[in-house]
Amino acid sequence: MFAYALWIGDHYWLLLTDAAVPAELFKGATQIRGLGADGKTHGLLVTLDPKGNPNPIMVLQAVEATGNLHWQKFELTTLSKEALEGKTRALSPQKGADKTYEYDISFKAPVTVMR
Fold this sequence. Notes:
The protein is mainly β. 4% of the residues lie in helices and 54% in strands.
């Protein structure tokens, strides 16, 4: 699992993927949001407010974003301008875009500031 943490505007973006992401992808929000449309990369894109509250969570491949978070658990143990660390998991299998998915991920990533 690969973890990337970005500070964009006044929010954190946490990108969790099953494959390394090329550095040029981090040149803009549009490229990051489009990740997974290639059918090759799987994972999550989580938007966090400055206090670490997730909303929304986008499941790559399913290309669905949801603010209804009752189906998952998200915990941060580190929230700073230097790093994000924690874990997230689906509480049960979820369906989206004709796919079923579930996950249980621990992550730790340095924060990159995007302008």
